[in-house]
Fold this protein.
Amino acid sequence: MGRQLTTIGFDADDTLWQNEQFFRLTEARFAALLADHVSAEVISGHLLEVERRNLQFYGYGIKGFTLSMIETAITLTGGRVPAPVIAEILSAGREMLTHPVETLPHARATLEQLAGGFKLVLITKGDLFDQERKLAQSGLGDLFDAVEIVSEKTAATYQAVFKRHGDGAAHSMMVGNSLKSDIVPAIEAGSWATYIPHDLTWAHEHSEAPLSAPRFRELKHLGELHSVIMEIDT
């Protein structure tokens, strides 16, 4: 009888290292810049709408977020946003792109436990340069057999990635903090999927958990992953 699991896919942002907290801090900084024009609540709601609309043009990541902040500032001020405010937004974006990487608890230990016994694949969305930078700074890169930086995470994405780097979706698991991107499409692809919630998750990534799916698991933290995988693969 063949093994149940041979390949484990990992999300990066807010699964292996902190990410969303820097977006939240920058958004608060952005709201303060426009405080004389409109409330923080209105700014947050409009920015989310702009980000969602711009995903098809800019994709995921800090650069698209920065451009969306600029567009929001122009719109909410009726085109009267001062040049120094635009400069401050650009500066905030650059700071995000150089912020040190902070790995999450159990990330390295879990990857080290699984490395060698399974093919480990990093599957992440976002800007190519920024994701490569974060992976390098995390010190986790050598633990992965493959890295896939994709424009979107769909069932077809997971089927293709797990076929390319493993024995197909049926013998693979995706691990991540986003129900919409990491969990639901992986289940649809025929994979196992393990949801590890993060305290902060972008509103765009919210979805209903596939609680009735036999291959769905939910854990409190990455430190619980190894034992769950061992249970499945025996």
